[in-house]
Structures are given as C-alpha cells and as structure tokens.
Amino acid sequence: MPCGCSYVLALIAISVLVFVQGTAQAASAKPLLSRITQDSKTSLYTISIKNGAPPLVVDLAGTLVWSTCPSTHSTVPCLSDTCHAVHHQQPRRCRHVDGGWFWAGRELEPGSRCACCTAHPFNPVTGECSTGDLTSFAMSANTTNGTSLLYSEEFTTVGACAPERLLASLPATAAGVAGFSRQPLSLPSQIASQRQFGNKFSLCLPAFATFGDTPVYLWTPSPNGPVDYTKIIRHTPLLTNPRNAGFYLPVKRISVTWNGPEVPLSLPVGALDLDVRTGRGGVVLSTVTPYAIMRPDVFRAFAQAFDTVVARDRISSVSRVAGVKPFELCYGGTGGFAMMKRTGYDAPGIKLELAGATGNWTILNSNYLVRGACVGILEMGPAGMPVDGEPAIVIGGMQLENILLEFDLEKRMLGFSGLLNWDLTNCYSATFL
C-alpha cells in the first residue's frame, strides 16, 4: 500500500521540534503529570499518556516514542527536517525483527530516493529493532500546579510505528516504548519544546512522572504539612556517552557501610570511569533493567566488601547462605536481616560517591533487599547488555523506586532524594495523586 505521506503533518511534526509557540501560550502552559504503573510480571514501568491507547514502557535511555499503529496512518516525508533528525538516532547495533519488510510496495516521493520517513524503533529488553513509518501520536496528560491536578490537555508527539513482534518481552498491556533520554525526539524533549515550560522531567517510581519545572509535594509526618521535595534534593552532574543516550552518574568510589567504618570496594583507579571514546564503562541508570547489574570485576569486589561488613557489624547470626536464582548474595541465620519498625530491614548501605555533586547517593535496604534475604544486585553475564559498549554498573529499577528523581536536560543535572521510606513517605504520597 502506498504510504500516503502528508506534508501538512510534516510541518506539524517539525513545529514540535523547532517552532516556539506564542508568548501568551508559553506563559500559560502548565506542567504535566502522568501516572506510572509497574507490571507485576516483568517489573517494567508503563506510562499512560497515549490518548485512548494502551500504555508505553518507560525507557530512560530511549531516543524515540514508538508504538504499534493501525494499517492506515499519516506519515512524515523523508525530505523533512524531522526525518533528518530521526536518522541520527538509529541504533548502532540491533537485531532486526522484520527482515526488511518495510520497503515492500512503497511508492517514492517525487524527486526523492526514498518513500516516507523511516525510524528505527528499538526494544531495550530484547535488543531487537525494526523499521517503521515516522508518524504522530495523540497524547494526553493532566496539568498540575505541583500540589493538585487541574485539567487534562491533549497534544501530539512524533513517533515511530512498529510491528507487533517488536513487543516481545514487554508487558502484555503495553503498545510500545516511550524514550526519556535527552535526545530531541524523546517524550520529555518533545513536550518541553512544545510547551516552553522548562526542559525538565521528574520520575518517582513506581507512581508518576511530571514534565516541566514543577514542585513535587509529598505528605510526611511533618506538622507543617506536605513538603516540596524539589527544594531539598541533592544534585549531581550527568555524564554524556556518545554511544548510548542513557543518563550516566559520575561515580568515583563505592563503599559498603553499616554499624562500623565503611568498607570501600577494592577496585583499580578508574574502574568505574566512562570511556567517552568507546562508550564503555560508567554507571548508568535504567528503568528497563529490574535489578542493578555489575561488571564481573566490580561485582566480585562488591560481594567481598558486603560480606566483610556483614561479618563485622552483624547484630545477630546472619551470614551468607546458598543463593536463590538469579541472586547470588543471600543471607540467613536467625531470620536474616532484622526488621526495623518503620524503615524496613536493618541492613548495610551501599554508598556511591559522586564527583561534583552536592551529596552522595546511598542505596538503602528497600532499594536492594529481595524478600529480606537476598541482595538484588546481579553479576553481568558474558553476553553483557543489549547496548553499545559495556557499562561498569547498571542501576536498575528496584534501586530507583521511591526516590524522587528530577532530570534537568538543559543543564545536564540530576536531582535525587534519599529513599523516601526513611522520611516515612513514598511516591504515592504526592499531593497531586
């Protein structure tokens, strides 16, 4: 079937990326809020933002919005600026699931060597990709003033169509993926370009995402009422990997601490560094990896430090026991780690020291303990990760839950709270939910 390219739609798509809306409209644009849900089977997070359609999987390293499409849909011409932008976002390596079906029966545009603009949707779980038309998707989200919901607004984003087979290993309810990277065709970048309300977004997994420069008030036991956590979070610069659009932390040292002095991981100098030439190394955040994954040399050093702290600082007979797949580090004894009244298990903390940051990131009990006995941090297998290069550490979804994360795409900074449970609150305590 001919693709029926629409130059009118192309102009709309280009305006998403280029044209600045009128001053009055930009001044009145309010931040947006969307609910996030965690899938119980895959542990992946989906966002309900595609208007009247199934949700999309949240991928912090994703460069595109992509979804399955009806057989007839509008498309973007390959000679447009938008198409030129999407061609710079093709995955460097992936396994194609379609065998080149896209080009079958296509009619070329007059004076062009190609048919409609093609994008390359990528499944971050399987490492597979496809080719598909670049089109526009109808979206909707609630506006917010940071304390409450206001009203629903509709808008459009540019995205790629993808075949059903690319949905493999995603939640059964999902229709595609929403990329959240700093690339121009990611969901946050497109929304910020349209609404001119600040190139920021926040995540508080597994509950919600906000778009725009907005406060986030959480209910706490404070007698003064809800607290704006965007005012009290720490900040760290983010590193850029030219071969991976993910968000990298400038981790210079890792240590394990509990009731005594901290025990640093015994690693060579630079073992955690990101090599910007090859794209290897570094510590990257991921919403599509359920648990943290460490390169073998880093994992061995971590396991040794963790065992040392447990043996030295334990207050009961807790000790290493046989692992429970896929977890290698499991601990037992008289009930394993003791349960505290309000903040979870009494267990070591894992401190990430960040270069140039206003504070360090400490991974606490609820962000790594599985069933109170196993450490939800895995050793990277021989196949590595389905991304270019091989990171030293992937910080997974479990490590990000119930932490407020504020991404400033313009300044390349990340704001992060501590584990909210320790303040006797959580992401579901936001006043606008």
Protein described:
With 433 residues, this protein is of the alpha+beta class. The protein has 2 domains: 7-217, Beta Barrel (Cathepsin D, subunit A, domain 1); 234-403, Acid Proteases (Cathepsin D, subunit A, domain 1, Beta Barrel). 13% of the residues lie in helices and 30% in strands. It has 6 helices and 33 strands. The protein has helices at 7-17, 23-28, 81-87, 187-195, 296-313, 397-400, and strands at residues 32-38, 45-47, 56-59, 65-67, 95-96, 118-119, 128-129, 132-144, 149-161, 176-179, 200-204, 208-211, 217-218, 227-228, 234-237, 239-241, 244-249, 251-257, 263-264, 283-285, 292-294, 319-321, 330-332, 339-340, 344-345, 349-354, 361-363, 369-370, 374-375, 377-379, 393-395, 405-408, 413-416. The strands form 8 sheets. The chain has a 7-stranded mixed β-barrel. A 6-stranded mixed sheet has the order 16-17-20-31-21-30. A hairpin with an 8-residue loop joins β2 and β3. The longest helix is centred in the C-terminal third of the chain and has 18 residues, at 296-313. The radius of gyration is 23 Å and the shape is globular. Mean pLDDT is 87; it is low at 4-27 and 102-113.
